[in-house]
């Protein structure tokens, strides 16, 4: 961190309660719900400097700062959000939220269903990216924000930024889509299904109603996270960090942890199963699978993008094989064909898909340069 950069400091979560029914793409309706969110910086008098941060699969509203001074770690995108950082809170009012179906305070499967006074569990409806965008638009209304200076997201978050530009074109000035894609490949859908099967077949899952059984499908969550984590890393990155290092220096000729990469993955799986909800994991991966804005246009991505009026920044990372640069270039080509203004950056990185969370200097420089221009637009 340079001397001109600092943290947003101590932050606190806020909640917004909505009692206007939300009709979902699956055909069901949430009669009421709440969204948990955080804000950083100050909204200007014209309410024109707001930026929305959309989270990825396992993300949440705590994107920057700390809740207590002695917290071991800051928000998940603290490296990017704060005074002097690319998403500069001296210039922007930043909003980060936990989406519907989440497990960090927004209404989701572990929340109490008002109709039964029990956790929603398996009864919680499947939600989609367009559903999230509709809920986010209502939060924007609540905050008095008619138009976002920018909407930013990586991976599943980038899909939300893209959906915003299509569903609410007049409310988005800039859409920043990072390490994302206009729809999932068959391989990505396959990875998601294997992860879901690990959860669905865990004896402690109880059909999604494990809360009443005082159980947690840890084994399924653990395996799902281990599989997912492999796809977020690159082969070169894993090789450089772990190689074929053995924990004890010699083969044990058994099936316990021997290689350092095995130890790392099991640690990540165990940690994840301690704080993430299994039903939320299922919902988030399904939202990924279903995302396809071209579907309503006969598969024509260009036709879907015609509605957008925002400027776009699309960024990808060379070692990301889960959402490869090819998929970002596919989106860029669609935007160009739809006659949209788009900038594209392909960043050299060894961090794989997780690179959108990292601080590779070319990536930071790209974000800073683009958002400097957004800040000038706001100030004009």
Automatic annotation (TrEMBL):
It catalyses: L-homoserine + succinyl-CoA = O-succinyl-L-homoserine + CoA. Substrate binds at residues 225, 354. Homodimer. Residues 49-356 form the AB hydrolase-1 domain. Keywords: Acyltransferase, Amino-acid biosynthesis, Cytoplasm, Methionine biosynthesis, Transferase. InterPro entries: AB_hydrolase_1, AB_hydrolase_fold, HAT_MetX-like. The keyword Transcription does not apply. Gene3D superfamilies: 1.10.1740.110, alpha/beta hydrolase. It is an enzyme of class 2 (transferase). Transfers a succinyl group from succinyl-CoA to L-homoserine, forming succinyl-L-homoserine. PANTHER family: HOMOSERINE O-ACETYLTRANSFERASE (PTHR32268). It is found in: Cytoplasm. This is Homoserine O-succinyltransferase. The record marks 322 as: Important for acyl-CoA specificity. Belongs to the AB hydrolase superfamily. MetX family. GO terms for molecular function: homoserine O-acetyltransferase activity; homoserine O-succinyltransferase activity. Its EC number is 2.3.1.46. GO terms for cellular component: cytoplasm. It comes from the Bacteria. GO terms for biological process: homoserine metabolic process; methionine biosynthetic process. The active site is at 155 (nucleophile), 320, 353.
């Amino acid at each position: 961190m340079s001397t001109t950069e600092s943290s947003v400091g101590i932050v606190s979560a806020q909640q917004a309660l909505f009692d206007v029914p939300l009709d979902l793409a699956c055909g069901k309706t949430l009669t009421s719900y709440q969204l948990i969110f955080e804000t950083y910086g100050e909204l200007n008098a014209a309410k024109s400097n707001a930026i929305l941060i959309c989270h990825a699969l396992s993300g949440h509203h705590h994107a920057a700062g700390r809740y207590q001074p002695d917290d071991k770690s800051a928000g998940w995108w603290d490296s990017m959000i704060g005074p002097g950082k690319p998403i500069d809170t001296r210039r922007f009012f930043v909003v980060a939220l936990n989406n519907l179906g989440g497990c960090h305070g927004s209404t989701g499967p572990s929340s109490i269903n008002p109709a039964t006074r029990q956790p929603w569990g398996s009864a919680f409806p499947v939600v989609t990216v367009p559903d999230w965008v509709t809920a986010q638009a209502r939060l924007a209304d609540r905050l008095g924000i008619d138009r976002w200076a920018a909407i930013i997201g990586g991976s599943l978050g980038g899909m939300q930024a893209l959906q915003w530009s299509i569903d609410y074109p007049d409310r988005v000035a800039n859409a920043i889509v990072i390490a994302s894609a206009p729809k999932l490949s068959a391989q990505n859908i396959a990875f998601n299904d294997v992860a879901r099967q690990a959860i669905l077949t865990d004896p402690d899952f109880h059909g999604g109603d494990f809360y009443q059984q005082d159980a947690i499908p840890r084994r399924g969550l653990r395996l799902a996270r281990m599989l997912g984590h492999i796809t977020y890393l690159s082969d070169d990155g894993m090789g450089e960090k772990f190689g074929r290092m053995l924990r004890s220096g010699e083969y044990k000729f058994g099936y316990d942890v021997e290689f350092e990469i095995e130890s790392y993955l099991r640690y990540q799986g165990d940690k994840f199963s301690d704080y993430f909800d299994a039903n939320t994991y299922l919902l988030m991966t399904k939202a990924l699978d279903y995302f396809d804005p071209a579907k309503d246009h006969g598969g024509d991505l260009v036709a879907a993008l015609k509605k957008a009026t925002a400027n776009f920044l699309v960024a990808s990372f060379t070692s990301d094989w889960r959402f490869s640069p090819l998929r970002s270039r596919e989106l860029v080509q669609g935007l160009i064909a739809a006659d949209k203004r788009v900038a594209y950056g392909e960043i050299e990185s060894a961090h794989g898909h997780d690179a959108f969370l990292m601080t590779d200097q070319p990536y930071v420089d790209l974000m800073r340069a683009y958002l400097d221009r957004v800040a000038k637009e706001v100030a004009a």
